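Troubleshooting entry. The earlier prediction with beta-L-fucopyranose gave an output that would not parse, so I re-checked the input for stray whitespace and re-submitted. Clean input:
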Amino acid sequence: MLAQLLVAMLALHSSQEEKLVPSVVPSTQGAPSTDDAPPPFGPVPTAAQLAWHDREMQMFIHFGPNTFTGLEWGEGGENPKLFAPTALDAKQWARVAKEAGMEAIILTTKHHDGFCLWPCALTAHDVASSGWADGTRDVLRELSDACAAEQLGLGVYLSPWDRNNPKYGSGEAYNEYFKAQLREVLGGAYGPIVEMWFDGACGEGPNGKRQVYDFPSFNALVHELQPTAVIFSDAGPEVRWVGNERGIGNETHWCQLHRDKFFPGTPLSAELGEGHRDGTHWVPAECDVSIRPGWFYHPDTDAKVKSVDALEEIWYASVGRGCGLLLNVPPDRRGLIHENDAAALRGLKARLDATFANDFARAASVSAAATRASKVDASRFAAAHVVDGDASTYWATEDAVHTGALTITLAEPATIGIVRVDEHIALGQRVAKFHVDALVDGTWKTVAQATTIGARRVLRFDAVTTSSVRIVIDESLAAPCIASVQLFAPRVKE
Ligand code: FUL
């Protein structure tokens, strides 16, 4: 991973990408020359974006006055005393997230009702005025500590739409208020933040006026305060919305996007899901979805928690298509993740662990139709790198070769039904079309086909018993760079 980060940092150094990594490039003295590596293709991810790709699945937490009123969009005039969880335990949230295999938790520190889950010096509409522990506790503090203890990343959602604050709709004064809130949350008091989540909603405030948000200055402030955080919004700048709230990524998912065509609150467009093969910026899609029918907890949805089957389908349609999954798990009125939600997450984890426990391709022998030459090390771009378990090494072709095939010969025949392929995205996303063949009774049979790969592509297909599998790159925008190929047994339904 370290090497992958280094390549991304070096590539970034010479590109026009926004600098989200420290400007000091680590010394490469003593390291082999990278001269004969494929040149980066198109926009490439920053170190912060590569870390986001690695997080695969994150937990979203919607919590606040709505949890107690039954609303999804609080009106802003709610009495803060309504916020009165009886047994809030952020350590339990973090434990559930960790046990589910999530890598970070993103909390609604302020939703559209304007209520702050941290004691905000700028408003009385916050936990300090609430009915919870006489206003002495701080949800964000407790979650930050709990995430640190579980080694989870922490992300924040701070809604620009504020139905409580009288400055909302006034222009500059509200934008300054909002930035002052960003400083409180991101200024360091709560430690490092991995993701800033900006919602594009822009409704009316308490005066019936709408606000013109100053996103360029919000983004600049986030980058200044938390240089290793990624910013999510409908339009990035670092992570984009997938365009639906069902957790479903697009079959074709380009991380590159003509970012300047979009803005937070941008009209819904299929392009958000698909991206653009000739896009100008690296802005991968994040798929948000709630484990319950609403974003907030409502007691009448206890029996409507998504099943393990449904969650598994969402995982394949999001993580499996190279997107990130942001799965919302709203704490209940006790301030705990409900038993039903926790059980569904445990079920998902058990199923994914069982499915991906045994990779038949690991340490299999691999050959390629053509491989890029290297003066540094003859095996530098060898096909064997796709099964070496090292995400920083990869197989590549010469620059002029935009197709290719990897043949994986297993030590003994195996019954397979799932393939996972990862591109070496530090050098950009390249593959536009590929298919998978298995050798059955002496004949190659196509078992799966798809378009893009990106960070990862996981495909399920009808089970075949075989000892040879071929990954055929039919179309690539530049020399394909494949980091990993994994083969698994089909999932046996319990
Ligand atoms: C939306 C909001 O309006 C919803 O309440 C929720 O927070 C969702 C994740 O984003 O735009």
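This one parsed fine. Confidence is low (pLDDT under 50) at residues 1-30.
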